[in-house]
Design a protein that fits this description.
mainly beta; 6% helix; 3-stranded antiparallel beta sheet
Length: 128
């Protein structure tokens, strides 16, 4: 992708158990949030360093700053084999404007089982 482009990740959380599970989704302004509330991020550049966080990234990931994130969490039941789709704009949280390759992986705590589920690791290539 070109430097400065928006990087969107699409995630799918699928209930692979034999019973319903509860999962939370953050809504901001009545729409599904695209900053990945509820997810933990592992983003690294080619040298293994975490890219610089944006102002929103510092607030959401590190709890730094005085702004408030306004929205609400809704909980829904996922039946066995049912999936919940999410879209995360990773560039709202991390500065990926420097050319190079970045690896991105997200994980999410599943409340019902108290376990973390990790995504596949993807590589985003940024060009000038």
């Amino acid at each position: 992708m070109k430097s400065g482009s928006e990087v969107r990740l699409k995630t799918v959380v699928t209930n692979i158990t034999e019973h319903e599970i509860t999962i939370g989704t953050f809504l901001s302004g009545g729409s599904p949030d695209t900053t990945g509330h509820g997810f933990t991020f592992n983003v690294r550049d080619e040298s293994g360093a975490e890219p610089r966080l944006t102002k929103l990234g510092r607030l959401q990931i590190r709890g730094e700053g005085e702004d408030e994130v306004i929205g609400k969490i809704i909980f829904r039941q996922l039946r066995p084999s049912e999936a919940l789709l999410n879209e995360i704009v990773i560039t709202k949280l991390f500065d990926l404007s420097r050319p190079g390759n970045y690896t991105i992986q997200v994980e999410r705590l599943v409340d019902a089982t108290r376990t973390y589920v990790k995504s596949n690791t993807i590589t985003a290539s940024v060009v000038p």
